[in-house]
Amino acid sequence: RGMVKLRSVKKIYPNGSCGLLDVNLEVKRGDFIFVTGPSGSGKSTLLKLLYGEERPTDGEVIVDNCNVGQLRGHKLSLLRRRIGVVFQDYKLIPRRTVTENISFVLWAQGFTHKEIERRLVPTLKLVGLQHKASCFPEELSGGEQQRVSLARAIVGTPPLLLADEPTGNLDPDNSASVLKILQKLNNFGATVIVTTHDERLLRMANKTVVQLRDGQLFQG
Ligand code: ADP
Ligand code: ADP
Fold first, then answer.
1. Which of 12, 122, 129, 184 has the greatest count of CB atoms below 10 A from its CB?
2. pLDDT digits (tens, 9 = 90+) for 112-134
3. Interface pTM (ipTM) of the complex?
4. Nearest CA to ligand 2 atom 24
């Protein structure tokens, strides 16, 4: 039982741009892999197919035993709750505090107030932001904002965590702390897929790396 399986996946965008070309990939439960490759090689496309933001033109995208390309509406939302996503630009809600940004997801999923409280503090601790709980995003450094976005991605304990260039805007120290958090989650059992072209991050992490070039995947 793998966590992610791509079978002959092709993604051609409506304007004719090639996102991915015949990609095969298997990621087992509990794996931690990096997807690297130059800008425009298809890294974001790969992640978008995994969380159902885009549909494959051809082939199958299987996540947690679901055929993502065929899910619609409520079924797609249910799968997305099981996938945490982190972006290079954080995507925090500006006029909401750290606590609100993190609990919003749980609230939207119908968690009780009590359950939200129960999850919030350990998650804030995990990312080292207990002391910033009442701050607004603009009051935080880039590294702190990225840790809030990590907290938001993981507060629902998703079995799959996707991160698209999570250290793209961060200095080496902040990149290292983001990596540490990702590794900790992986140790707790989450499957982690990270896109990056940060060579330093790849060296530091020493995990499996797959390469994309012009929409094609090379392993090893
Ligand atoms: P990366 O994340 O590696 O930079 P992307 O997956 O963003 O690569 O892009 C892969 C290719 O698909 C690029 O040629 C890009 O221009 C194209 N592409 C990505 N998103 C879209 C879109 N929404 N519409 C058209 N082309 C797109
Ligand atoms: P858009 O589709 O243009 O991203 P949204 O209404 O989805 O706009 O999002 C508005 C803001 O809320 C964005 O900053 C976005 O990142 C954030 N947001 C969206 N979904 C969630 C979520 N599930 N949890 C926390 N913040 C979210």
1. 129
2. 999 999 999 999 999 999 999 99
3. 0.78
4. 105
